[in-house]
């Protein structure tokens, strides 16, 4: 099979990192500067488009046809080439080495992935590239050096331009070698089909309410200005937002403060020596809540047609293959609790910020509640939102063969009540509103959410968001939950034993329901029933000093992308398996919904958002599709629930 490896260098006055490639290519000055390519093992060629060189006819034909094209972060090349040459770059004929890297638990940058794969110095990415990109591919900053030019062209520095040409050539050399190393562990064909669907979802994007976003930003700015004025009057400092200035002022009030981070603010408020100091700290805390970063990210990324695109990253959560958010970060949106979201967003959109605050409270709270509602369907359509019900609880029970839990999900589905009944030995039918035993439901819910992956009291405390349980009850409740779910508890240790045995024997050890651990080529794999595998690179068994026993370690990218060794255990391994299988259930639903003709602008965790013309489709049709049995997971009881809406929200 012929493969065309491609890498391009581009220019645009729009910030790629902040706005995304779809907005980036809409700039009037967008252009592809250099086009490097190689068929299979052929020498790398570079076409200098700024010198009016033509891309060879066979390459253009390959780009338009069914020849497999590949690149690092192929979504960028696909989008840019489609724009530049006005061609359709169908994702089913592309492969992405960055996505492939993610599937193996490796970094998302070409440079870091090259190092992780052990490429020699001659194949590593050119470190000078960042400076060259900044010089030729980004607008100039106003300096005396460039004479206030808006951008640098090749004739401004021919020597550097030649370096850029060679840098572009070297990128293809490196990408090709990285691809070959990655191909030792192929991505299953059905996953490339899913990646192609992911690309189409990102290309389609989701419409945003630009008026609402603009008013949210203005409202936040005005409120922040009010807080700053009050803080200045109280402290007399020039910039109350400056931690240094505020710490100095607090010291004058008798408070020596090391940090003003939000996680210590509650403690600081309790230590405030007087009301004035307390008010200043409250203002600081309130200003920390006024961030409208998500609104701003939506605004920056909005394309000419009013849609935000490219906000989902296939396999971005590489350990479990789940999707990750990009720029707008849809995966950590605050929930909404206002009784009348529509009325609140109408007031905000009208620009009457005083009325908004009078009716609904401080702007930070209201704007947080309304973030989801900035996403709206296409004109003439509505959203159908549907998500799996308690998917992780279902998957872990299925994987562990915890039959009583499976029976609950095959029946009434009230897992929190059933768990409380089993934990406390009380009749299930008494855990209803109005009965004194209803108080046990909260313990059943929190324990279900906190304890499945070996969580203890700390996990209980984190999940007890409403603080319905006395803190001294967390430990006893953890013990009760484990006694009620002995097979799930046993699964943690069975999983750890299987992983470590596979590593010790350099072989394969079966676990349950098609899951097995397998060592191959320096990587420990967890093979899943869906047909793909989770990867744990460079695994080693090392003594755990905390528990005085052997434990499993492996390498994973840290925040900088450098591969560092980390430790894991059975509970976390089970969490990886469960989240990965839940992800595969979502993936199956995405493919089915796409085949049924539904447009998918967004999906978040275990939820899909569909953009459906009025009069077509229904919630029942969507939930039926999502609840269908999956061939590779016989006996897994799936169920979905959904609703329709005119703006995105939590039901």
Keywords:
single chain; 651 residues; alpha+beta; Nucleotidyltransferase, domain 5; five-stranded mixed beta sheet; four-stranded antiparallel beta sheet; 26 helices; 45% helix
Helical proportion, percent range: 40-55%
Order of strands, main sheet, comes to 3-2-1-4-5
Average the pLDDT over all residues and give the rounded result: 93
Can you summarize the main beta sheet? 5 strands, mixed
* Number of distinct beta strands: 21
Task: Quickly count the helices.
Answer: 26
- Could you name the CATH topology of the domain at 3-187? Nucleotidyltransferase, domain 5
In the CATH hierarchy, the architecture of the domain at 3-187 is 2-Layer Sandwich
The CATH C-level class name of the domain at 3-187: Alpha Beta
InterPro entries: DNA-dir_DNA_pol_A_palm_dom, DNA/RNA_pol_sf, DNA_polymerase_A, RNaseH-like_sf
Protein name: DNA-directed DNA polymerase
Domain DNA-directed DNA polymerase family A palm: 368-616
Organism: Paenibacillus paeoniae
